[in-house]
Each structure stands twice: as C-alpha cells, then as structure tokens.
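Figure 3 (text version): structure tokens given as input.
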C-alpha cells in the first residue's frame, strides 16, 4: 500500500514538472474579503460584494462599466468560513476524522450556490485554506485530498493557501489540483511552505502569485515596507507571467483600522499605493467595502484608470522595480501591525518597460512636504540621453509635451505621485 502511495506521489511530481495551466499570464485583479470584513463575514456579504463588483452603475469614458468589466474578476473568500471544533480521535480543528473540511453552515449555507452566483456575474470565485483561525494540525494526505475535492466540488476557481496550519506542501496542493480537476485552478501562496519560487522556470513556481511581504496594514509606513520586498525578487527574475510577487492585498480606501491605526489613508495615499502596486506588476486585489458607494466613488477615478491598469497588465520582459531612492529619509509611525516605526527614502522612483519602446515611470513623494521631483531620462533603464520623449500624465490621461534630457514633476504633494508613460517622439 505504501509503495503504491509513493508511486502515485511520484507520478504527481512528474506531472507538475510539465505543468503550466495558462492562468495568471497577467497579474490577477479582483477583490478579497479579509482586509475589511476579517471574521465578520458570511455568504450574504460575499454575494452582495459580488454584485457590487459586477454592477454597471458608474461610468468609464462615458460608458456604464463595472469593476468586473475592467478585469477585477477574481473575487475571494478569506478566513472564518470554517466550523471550529475538535473532530475525531486526532482532534482536528476544522477537518472531520476523514479529513473533510467543516463549513459553518449558519454563515455559509451553500458554498456551491455562492460560487454559482459569482460565475453568473462573470466572476471567478476564490477559496481560502490552511486557515489561521482554529488552525489545524492535520497534515495527512487525507486532508489534502479532501480539501481539494471539496474546493472543486463547490466549483471554486482559485484558492489562497495560508501558512497557519500544517498543510504546507504547496507542490502537493498544485499536483492534486492538476490531477483531480477538470479545469485549471489558480493558486495563491500566502507564506505556505517555500514561499517564493526557487527558480525562473515555471516548473519551479507551483503557484501563480506569492506573498513577498508580511501582512499589510492601512498606514503609509506599512505600504512602503511591503513594496520594498518586490525589487529583490524582480532583480532575481522571480516575478513573471504565471508567477507574480505580491506585497499583499490593496489597502485602498480601507476604513477597518482594527482600532490600531491612527486614521484611514487619504484618497491621495490610496491612489499612490495603487500606482506602486500597478507598476511592479503586483496582483491588484481590492480589499475595501465595495458595497459602500461613497468609498467606491472616491476610488473610482484611479482604480478604473485604464492606462494605469494597462501598465500593470502589459508585459515587455520585466516586471518593474525601484530605480532611485533618495538619501534623505522620512520617519513613519506606525509601520504595520507589528512594526511601531520605520524610516524610508523621502523620494522613490519606479519604472516598468512597456510595449512599443515606452517606459512607465512613477515618481513618489514620501516626504511630509510638497516638492518638485526632477527626472533625468538617462537614469531610467530603457531611456536614452539626448532623445526627445513624449511625457504623458497617466493620472490625468494627458500628454504633457515633448522633453529632451529631463522632466520635472512640479509641486508633488506629500504621499502623492506622478505616474507617467514616456515614449519616443
């Protein structure tokens, strides 16, 4: 029996080496429940959020448009769906004795019905496993297999694998999905097992997106701490189509401060945060209450900016990174759930190559004062000294003119940014 098991697992490993299921060729976009709802979640809230994502009640370029129309299609449930307890002789905390996940049916009476609604609205439904609340110690093959069967039986299209329980073998997760499912499954690795790909070959990345950072918090110090984790991975070639570094869900327009953050981030901070995630090819996963019309209205001009989204989604051989950090530093407090204070460069510049010899550049003012942000073209990878370039303001969707050698973004406010595309004249 054990020999048969080993042969079966070996066959799974061989299958994984050849696997590329075609998902996440561009950074995934969508919404997930945790940042706002955390454990105050149920099926009704999820379904209302699905409908909000798909609602064409606002305009983009004069046309009724939904967030789903713009690509925000991966809508995910997070923790707290499970019925915590002690099950079977091993006292599993949310798997029964045979390894089957136990759903809190008072909160989620029909997982399959919830998924069906998502599909009817043009969304891909995401699940969450290896949970943190009542984290389970089950690490047997029975739990892996039962979780996979349940997730597929309910019809989910993706799964976020957290790092709290003992089901830490992400390669096994992916192999089981590949050999069990009749459709491709997208996997997010959230601190589970080897948390980053171990090479640039797709076979060395058994997931589609992976957390590069600690948990994000809705404060500027945390935003900066998390974005700094992406450049080393980009430099190593470890964030690419089908395998994206992810500094966590967006805190854009977040109002759930958990009683630990001093104040919500401003609209300006939210926009700059969104732009930084976009230009490093991070998945763009919203986390605010999308059923709150006022919050959606405030975020709408930038989360629906087609040019900013295009910067994120287009691939021209490199994922984007920071190329300039000032020696001047600014102090921040707090800097996350566990980091009381920190310092980061007062100014940082990002770039990402775009098709047709265009380069996206983002100039970010982290300082507490308004200042001009000068850019010398020859310092930007892919741009040449002496070549005239057309500079376009992405936030305003406006060409600013032709410039040779340099450009200055004037009077950029604190925590604000200039998001530009620069193309040959």
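Below: residues designed for each position.
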């Amino acid at each position: 029996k054990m020999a048969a098991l080993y042969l079966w697992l070996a066959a799974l490993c061989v299958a994984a080496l050849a696997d590329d299921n075609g998902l996440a060729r561009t950074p995934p976009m969508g919404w997930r429940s945790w940042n706002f709802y955390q454990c105050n979640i149920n099926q009704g809230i999820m379904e209302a959020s699905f409908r909000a994502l798909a609602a064409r009640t606002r305009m983009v370029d004069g046309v009724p448009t939904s967030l789903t129309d713009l690509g925000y299609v991966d809508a995910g449930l997070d923790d707290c769906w499970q019925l915590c307890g002690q099950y079977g002789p091993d006292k599993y905390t949310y798997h029964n004795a045979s390894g089957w996940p136990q759903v809190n049916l008072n909160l989620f009476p029909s997982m399959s019905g919830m998924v069906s609604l998502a599909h009817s609205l043009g969304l891909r439904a995401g699940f969450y496993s290896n949970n943190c609340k009542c984290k389970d110690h089950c690490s047997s093959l029975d739990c892996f297999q039962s979780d996979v069967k349940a997730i597929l039986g309910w019809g989910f299209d993706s799964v976020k694998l957290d790092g709290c329980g003992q089901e830490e073998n992400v390669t096994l997760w992916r192999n089981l999905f590949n050999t069990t499912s009749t459709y491709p499954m997208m996997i997010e690795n959230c601190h589970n097992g080897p948390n980053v790909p171990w090479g640039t070959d797709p076979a060395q990345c058994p997931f589609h997106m992976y957390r590069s950072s600690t948990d994000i918090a809705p404060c500027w110090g945390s935003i900066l701490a998390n974005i700094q984790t992406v450049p080393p991975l980009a430099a190593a070639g470890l964030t690419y189509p089908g395998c994206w570094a992810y500094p966590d869900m967006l805190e854009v327009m977040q109002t759930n401060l958990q009683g630990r953050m001093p104040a919500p981030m401003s609209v300006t901070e939210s926009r700059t945060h969104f732009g930084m995630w976009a230009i490093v090819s991070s998945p763009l996963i919203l986390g605010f209450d999308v059923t709150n019309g006022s919050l959606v209205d405030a975020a709408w001009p930038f989360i629906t900016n087609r040019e900013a989204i295009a910067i994120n989604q287009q691939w021209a051989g490199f994922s984007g990174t920071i190329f300039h950090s000032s020696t001047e530093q600014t102090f921040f407090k707090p800097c996350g759930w566990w980091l009381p204070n920190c310092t980061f460069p007062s100014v940082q510049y990002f770039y990402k190559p775009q098709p047709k010899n265009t380069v996206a550049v983002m100039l970010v003012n982290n300082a507490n004062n308004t200042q001009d942000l000068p850019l010398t073209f020859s310092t930007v990878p892919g741009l040449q000294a002496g070549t005239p370039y057309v500079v376009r303001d992405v936030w305003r969707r406006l060409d600013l003119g032709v410039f040779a050698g340099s450009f200055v973004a004037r009077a950029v406010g604190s925590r604000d940014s200039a998001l530009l595309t620069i193309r040959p004249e």
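The first helix runs from residue 2 to 17.
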